Amino acid sequence: MTHRVTAKPAVLVIDVGTSGLRAALVDATGSLVDYHHVQQPPSTPAPGLVEFDAQALYDAVAEAATTVVRAHPEIQPIALGITNQRASVVAWDARTGVPVGPGIGWQDLRTVIECITAKSEHGLAIAPNQTATKAAWLIANTARNIPSADLRLGTIDTWLTWKLTRGAAFVTDHTNAAVTGLVDPVTVEWDPRVCAIFGVSTDNLPTIVASRQVVGRVTGHGPLDGLQLAARLGDQQASLVGQGCIAPGRTKITFGTGGMLDMYTGGPGPTEAKRTPFGTFPIVAFSLDGATPQIHWGVEAIMLSAGTNVEWLCDDMGLIATPADSEAIALAVPDTGGVTYVPALLGLGTPEWDYGARGTLLGITRGTTKSHIVRAVLDGIAHRGADLLHAAINDAASRGVIAPDVIRIDGGMSRNAAFTRLLADATGKRVEVSPETESTTLGAAFLAGSATGLWSTLDEAVSTWKPATIVTPANDPAMRSESRRNWLDSVQKARGWIPDLSALDF
After folding, report:
1. CA 305 from centroid of its chain's CA atoms
2. What is d(CA 234, CA 240) in angstroms, rounded to the nearest whole number?
């Protein structure tokens, strides 16, 4: 008698970053079974411009997803989740499904003047990395010949969902919509007044649905056909969910090229979308399906450069051969030898928001070695992580949320043992390192899987998360206080190097 082996259920996740994408399978244990990665870097046709080929992006997504599914006949995907870089925008013609211009990346700065004008003339605090002015630019410069009824505008989740369902689903979720600059911050619905200011018709924008909600099925994609599209959310929120931070005060920091801290606060939501006095921003952490979507809130703090500083040590300074070498070289000395480095290569984000600040290396003596400098760079990034944490704690405290005892981290730098030790000492918190460098994939899987029966609830899904490493602070409170005082003094020395940029306020 032949016994048929039942395929194991899993969730297929499409995870689109700034420079690449991957398709991954996550099983019921919360484990990453396998993934297929495709490099997809943006182009920079001129300084300040960051573009991508939306059709090529979709083609790469379809190829990666098909490849990883076909590689595992023992796995039966039951749902699809999408997580993506936020605020990047695509415009396309619904009649042909073809983009009408370049996709504009979130880092693109071509609309800085329009952001300044929006604030001075309309009182709107729109940053260049939001979608609003980028969408307006596409309408004015690439979509003028498209009938309004046929024009579609959307973030990457919207574009991919529309293509995967052959145009049947034109949607986005609350996490992606909330960072466009085009929604009412209280209701998280499109704001007709703001849209009109930027010349964007709400008819051209997708329906806003819950992050966890089945919106259709994949059609016309071979082995992917029939998969329920059950989740979509921004990358930082996916990392928050993927590290199990769905209780008030739970916090994660992603240390990649830059650094992003997100803390779950629950509710209530904000009364306005602008930056808080603490230098943080309110965010939609995620939303859940229901008769009325349940919106869960959080707070976000931003470090403009994190891993970029380690790349600088490699590519420009030549002090180390690879970023991974920074760990052993930093651990070759017991401390920085009095050297301090402020990682402000692109300015300072939370809490200062000084775009004119610049990277600053202080305290060098004749006895300073390469190891001291490398350790100082890692220590500076750790102290910036502490800056983000303190800002988020102060913001959350104003809403009655208790400060966390633990922070969870992912991103490339989370694999550096020297850095995680310095982070624990700078923050005074236990640091739990994610088992996956890209927790975004897990977050999208947890939402999609809890929508389609792989897990009965989101709580059950995130309970599968376990840290790969736990690091506790080694220094005492007095030593930490002195270190923080010295650090904050160094930050002041790094500020205001380019006054015109320091004057910018979005």
Report:
1. 13
2. 10
- Burial of 119 per CB tally in 10 Å (0-12, 13-18, 19+): middle
- The enclosing H or E element of 14 equals strand 8-16
CA-based R_g, the chain, Å: 23
Q: Do 147 and 93 contact (CB within 8 A), yes or no? A: no
C-alpha 305/C-alpha 88 separation (Å) is 19
What is the fold, at CATH topology level, of the domain defined by 244-345+370-433+468-485? Nucleotidyltransferase; domain 5 (3.30.420)
- Chain-centroid distance of CA 181 in Å reads 16
What are the residues facing 20 on neighbouring strands?
A: 39
| Predicted confidence (pLDDT) per residue in 287-336, tens digit | 999 989 999 999 999 999 999 999 999 999 999 999 999 999 999 999 99
The four Cα atoms 392, 393, 396, 400 give a dihedral, to 10 degrees, of 180
Give tens-digit pLDDT for 75-128: 999 999 999 999 999 999 999 999 999 999 999 999 999 999 999 999 998 998
In the chain, where the domains are located: 8-233, 244-345+370-433+468-485
According to DSSP, residue 204 is labeled: G
CA distance 371 to 114: 45
> Quick check: bond before 268 cis, omega within 30?
yes
Closest CA to 238 of 470, 54, 471, 458: 458
Burial class (CB in 10 A: 0-12, 13-18, 19+), 211: buried
CA dist 256 and 305 (Å) reads: 8
DSSP structure string for 297-363:
EEEEEEES-SHHHHHHHHHTS-S-SSTTHHHHHHTTSSS-TT-EEE--BTBB-TTT-BTT---EEE-
Q: Give the right CATH number for 8-233 from 3.30.420.40, 1.10.10.10, 3.50.50.60, 3.40.50.1360.
A: 3.30.420.40
CB burial class (10 A; 0-12, 13-18, 19+) of residue 16?
Answer: buried
Which residues are within 8 A (CB) of 492 and not within 5 positions of it... i.e. 6 or more apart? Answer: none
CATH fold match for the domains 8-233 and 244-345+370-433+468-485: yes
